[in-house]
């Protein structure tokens, strides 16, 4: 069969693919019992937590999984540092992935196929897939030759060679998370098809190019994603990324694109139950003061069992502060004492004090501190050129002085994120 783009939807080589077209659907169905509140029509649809630096940590993933996130990505991992630096590796990986943290895909960035392979071999026994980051639009990704810039190296030959090398030597599916090329959708489609031919088992398409960031973000192009589905969707699963902030967006995106699932990053960070529809369970987490407090409490409880970035740089407290900032952002705008307490949180005991302070504020106020205009996520809506879903964190905000110093000393730099709550998603999207 020939697609609208003029290419065959399948090839004779597809019968010999290591992972057949329905591998993702079968994976989701094997784990469907973990999500009893999932709408029946979405049981085999991927509802995905995106890879985000210092944000899609283990305790956060476990929290999101309680509310229908049925596939999660690790934070973006720098392959070279993961292979060479034990401290950095411990930040992201422990042998023996908790059973409740599956299905899980580990995402890596890098430009050397052998280094990427070495990093992925460390984790392949404990994940359900590995992913190559071709989405990060930041300057540091350009200097490190990864992210969205990798798509353009050697006319796409480098990333195609990387995918061929990885898919030939790994026992788990290899996927790629991509943006649209600056030269347009036609060139992008040609590259996506080459990646599938090279052995990619899944594509995640962020419906923007690398120039669409900060004030120029604009709407995600779901029609472009639909064209990707039409081109390669008979051969591999395609996930849609961009413009997902609630379940209405989920269903609209699935209808518009025909994708196998949707991915959310910053919207789901502030509101982990994003993938739940209105029901008794999800109303416990409504966007109200008490609802936000409950999310923060549950996240901290999970941190005490599964410390984020345990044994790695910063021992996870930066990560915890950032999550508290997102959960309690609306309340912090009205109560500066709460904001000061979050800023000064450097221990788990300090985090518990923040929770107690927030609880006292709600008890004293006796009103819903639920003004959506004050939310961490919605604060980006004004002036971003988006319709109703807003924009994510400032993907190119300055890192702290310490992070800049650390980054400048690395041959290949780790993607930085702001010291206080401004997430660096792998694409800085939502």
From TrEMBL:
Residues 383-393 have a biased composition (Basic and acidic residues). Residues 49-355 form the DUS-like FMN-binding domain. It holds the Pfam family Dus. Keywords: Flavoprotein, FMN, NAD, NADP, Oxidoreductase, tRNA processing. CDD domains: DUS_like_FMN (cd02801). Residues 383-420 are annotated as: Disordered. It comes from the Eukaryota. GO terms for biological process: tRNA dihydrouridine synthesis. Its EC number is 1.3.1.88. One of its GO terms (molecular function) is oxidoreductase activity. Its cofactor is FMN. It catalyses: 5,6-dihydrouridine(17) in tRNA + NADP(+) = uridine(17) in tRNA + NADPH + H(+); 5,6-dihydrouridine(16) in tRNA + NAD(+) = uridine(16) in tRNA + NADH + H(+); 5,6-dihydrouridine(17) in tRNA + NAD(+) = uridine(17) in tRNA + NADH + H(+); 5,6-dihydrouridine(16) in tRNA + NADP(+) = uridine(16) in tRNA + NADPH + H(+). The keyword Disulfide bond does not apply. Belongs to the Dus family. Dus1 subfamily. This is tRNA-dihydrouridine(16/17) synthase [NAD(P)(+)]. It comes from Stephanodiscus triporus.
């Amino acid at each position: 069969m020939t697609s609208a783009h003029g290419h065959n939807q399948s090839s004779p080589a597809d019968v010999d693919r290591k992972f057949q077209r329905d591998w993702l659907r079968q994976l989701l169905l094997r784990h469907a019992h973990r999500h009893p509140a999932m709408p029946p029509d979405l049981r085999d649809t991927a509802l995905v937590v995106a890879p985000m630096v210092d944000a899609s940590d283990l305790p956060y993933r476990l929290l999101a999984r309680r509310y229908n996130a049925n596939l999660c990505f690790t934070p973006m991992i720098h392959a070279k540092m993961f292979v060479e630096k034990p401290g950095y590796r411990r930040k992201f990986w422990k042998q023996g992935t908790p059973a409740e943290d599956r299905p899980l895909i580990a995402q890596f960035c890098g430009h050397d196929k052998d280094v990427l392979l070495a990093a992925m071999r460390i984790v392949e026994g404990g994940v359900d897939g590995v992913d190559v980051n071709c989405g990060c639009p930041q300057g540091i990704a350009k200097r490190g030759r990864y992210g969205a810039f990798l798509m353009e190296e050697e006319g796409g030959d480098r990333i195609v060679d990387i995918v061929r090398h990885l898919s030939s030597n790994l026992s788990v599916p290899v996927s790629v998370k991509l943006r649209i090329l600056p030269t347009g959708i036609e060139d992008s489609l040609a590259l996506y098809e080459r990646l599938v031919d090279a052995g990619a088992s899944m594509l995640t398409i962020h419906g923007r190019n690398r120039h669409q960031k900060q004030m120029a973000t604009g709407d995600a192009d779901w029609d472009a994603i639909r064209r990707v589905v039409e081109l390669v969707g008979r051969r591999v699963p395609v996930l849609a990324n961009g413009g997902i902030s609630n379940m209405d967006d989920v269903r609209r995106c699935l209808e518009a694109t025909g994708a196998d699932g949707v991915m959310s990053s910053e919207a789901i960070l502030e509101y982990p139950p994003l993938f739940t529809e209105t029901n008794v369970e999800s109303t416990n987490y409504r966007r109200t003061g008490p609802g936000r407090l409950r999310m923060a409490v549950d996240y901290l409880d999970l941190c005490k069992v599964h410390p984020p970035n345990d044994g790695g740089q910063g021992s996870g407290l930066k990560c915890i502060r950032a999550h508290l900032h997102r959960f309690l952002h609306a309340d912090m705008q009205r109560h500066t004492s709460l904001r000061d307490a979050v800023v000064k949180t450097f221990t788990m005991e300090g985090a518990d004090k923040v929770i107690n302070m927030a609880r006292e504020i709600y008890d004293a106020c006796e009103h819903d501190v639920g003004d959506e205009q004050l939310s961490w996520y919605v604060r980006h809506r004004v002036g971003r050129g988006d319709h109703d879903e807003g924009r994510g964190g400032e993907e190119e905000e300055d890192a702290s002085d310490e992070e800049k110093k650390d980054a400048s000393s690395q041959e290949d730099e780790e993607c930085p994120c702001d010291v206080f709550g401004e997430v660096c998603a792998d694409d800085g999207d939502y």
